[in-house]
Amino acid sequence: MPALRFRIPRRRPSSQGSSLQRPVFHASTTAAFLLVLSMPGIATSNAYAATGDSHGTREQATAASPVIAVAEFTNQTSTANWWNGDVGKQLGNVLANELVSTGDFTVVEREQLGHALAEQDLAASGQVRQGTGPRTGNITGARYLVTGAISAYTANTADTGGGLSFGGFRVGGSKNEAYVAIDLRVIDSETSQVVYARTVEGRSSGGGVDLGGYLGHGVGGDFFHSRNTPAGKAVRAALIEAVGYLDCVMVKRDGCVASFRQKEQHRRQSDADALDLD
Question: What is the pTM of this model?
């Protein structure tokens, strides 16, 4: 396209002083100037300026995915005599895995963080091939910390008759029921404020298989190896309820909030009814 030329008249003497006369633009020049403004390159730039930062969508997607870390669980009861060994760590791992499975959370590792740091140190030492090791300074920080505590546990065994007993072992003839309550807290790691808190419950029942020792109490020393016992099922049910609650209040924030509010009101009422105030 030929270069545009604007005709500006020379300064002419005036009886009113040395002020300049206004430039005169011919109609053909004005039309050419408007044509330049309508060219694709100019239009794209104007559209970009109107829409703003091109990273906005990515930032919104990141904001919609809370970054969390899950702490080791604790036991605040004297009745959960299946609690021993690494059960607290195992429950924290189960909750973290369930949260990852939803696809709505970014869960960062903390229990095994030392191994990741060791790998970074190895790469920084110059002992690995250049460009293959992890870089330092890129560990994702957790905005929220999720904690859990076993606040209540009960187990009832009712003899239904029948069953077999031999050598000190009894199979069948009883019904085992278990109830567990887990106090959840979501802590803002920047302000230390508790932004969400809820007690979730799990119940389970099953036929009796009494093998004595810790397994007779439900979970035993390893939660994963005893997940099919009533206590193990109750804990698992409570953890699934915990995931549903966290996904609801932290991500979805839709009609599920009212449902969980009703559950909480029912739980509080049940606790109040169970108290002997006489």
Answer: 0.64
